[in-house]
Design a protein that fits this description.
Layout: H1 2-27, H2 31-56, H3 62-85
Helix pairs in contact: 1-2, 2-3
Protein name: Na(+)/H(+) antiporter subunit F
Family: Belongs to the CPA3 antiporters (TC 2.A.63) subunit F family.
GO molecular function, one term: sodium:proton antiporter activity
Length: 93
Amino acid sequence: MIFETMMVIALCILMLAILANLYRVVKGPSGADRVQALDTIGINLIASIGVFSVLMHTHAFFDLILLIGILSFIGTVAFARFIERGVVIERKR
């Protein structure tokens, strides 16, 4: 009973963190702040799915955690390259 209550509290705290980062994505003063907030949202989403998986006593969500982790990493690298160079993929002719 206490374990389930702590998991629900952890999910609520992670959702509040996602909302706070969503505010930073919308209101961020620079592109780098927005990219960092999006990366943090990905990490918080992975943690939320992990806590939910433990709460539901299932391993079914582990593939989803890996998928979100990979997509979050690729998205962060793409945004960082865009901020640095102005283009994600350079084409040399």
